[in-house]
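look at this record:
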Amino acid sequence: MVHYPYAMRICNNTLQELREKGLRVPGYDRNGLRTRIAHIGLGHFHRAHFLSYLERLLNSNLTDSGVFEINIVPADPSFIENLRKQDYMYSLLTLAPDGTEELSVNGGITGYADEKNEPEKVLEFLTSPDISLITLTITEKGYTYRDDIGSLDWGDKNLAHDLESEGSPVTAIGTLSRALHRRYLMNEPVTIMSCDNVPENGRRLRDSIMQFCSRKYPDMLSWLEENVAFPCTMVDRITPGTTEYDIQSLKAKYGLDDPCAVHSESFSQWVIEDSRTTAIPDFSQSGALITDDVRPYELMKIRLLNGSHSALSYPSYMMGYTMVDKAVSDPLIKEMIRYHYMEDIAKTLSDVPGIDINGYKDSLIERFSNPYIADTVLRLASDGSKKISNAILRPLEEGLREGKDMSSLLFALALWQYYYLFRDSNGNPMPLDDPKMDELLSASEDSEEFLRIAGLGEESIGEAGKKIRGYLSTIKKNGVTDAIRNFISG
């Protein structure tokens, strides 16, 4: 390994020197970028996924579109300061399971503002006639939507603020709705594309905005129907948060000082709904799949990848694992997830065009086991009720309704419930990070109520609750490790 005596920063003035050092840097004229895209949610995943696909188009001279970045909740000021010093460029390091690394500098960002500190600037870009595409990565929580009632969470205080106030919005839905009302008055159509890990994300986004606008801006509902497109997408790339160790490793191995660096796995997938009404660059030229129906790919990913993430995270942490690759290397966890959980969840999937489902399952285990991706078990365990609702509860309901054996899903839910009861050797409870944490804690001894709070339909609670109580009793008696061993042995 080469160790550099000094490290260079990224900026327009250093690109040529970085190129001469062998780094892959923008091969296009950044001064020629035209800001045609606005994005809400400047985070690690967006920089590793959407912006990497855009970078390929830019480097192939297939577009000259740049992205103005927006946050509803302000980012760390030091991060934004560093990003501006770097002329809004950053490095992306991808790491394959065999240790292969690829480092590139991405340059598609043209500017940044956040809703709290620069609301007028945010509104200016969201309503600019030059902006033809608005994209989002705001996580499932950002939609302020409740699956259990099929509507926006009107009890959410931030959503209530945006509904009642004429001032600066504090939610993504409020921000977009205000901007769309301005575009309505200007008669400026636009495409809004969710890039979040949410089932039928385009429809969810459309429904959320239509519901909000029906109360606050009812005059523009028919215009929205005819002039704003909400395509669905499926996105996939495991992207842990960047650590100080990652930043120091870049300095040592590549001579690059980049406090805005992002690291991800080498695998990436993006499926976009085709529609003649959308204004989207041709991302098929950079590796995305354009299809008439995203849903089969979306269900495959959410149920197999995200569901497996949730199913393995809780037992893994209770067994003492903190890193995902170490957890999946445990033979018990690997067998439970690959040969039990994935097999049962696959019973709820239809054929996915062009995908070998068994091969996809194997590839997931390989990706989870990637030792070069420092993904934490607690990241997977966070926001459990939001993730599990779509990734586990919905397929469980379908499977039970059709009389299929869903034992491993029920066992996974029992382990999740036990996570709320578990104490380590020092008597400490498990770390909890969930929007329904208090409610789930209060019901942690009652399986039926726990499932009800989590969002399982009433028609499934009786059967599921009875089986989960049995699993929970075994887990309490034998401990997590032996319970898993007994489960997989039949």
Remarks:
- The chain has 21 helices and 14 strands.
- The mean pLDDT is 95.
- The chain has two domains: 12-291, 295-488.
- The two ends are 48 Å apart (CA to CA).
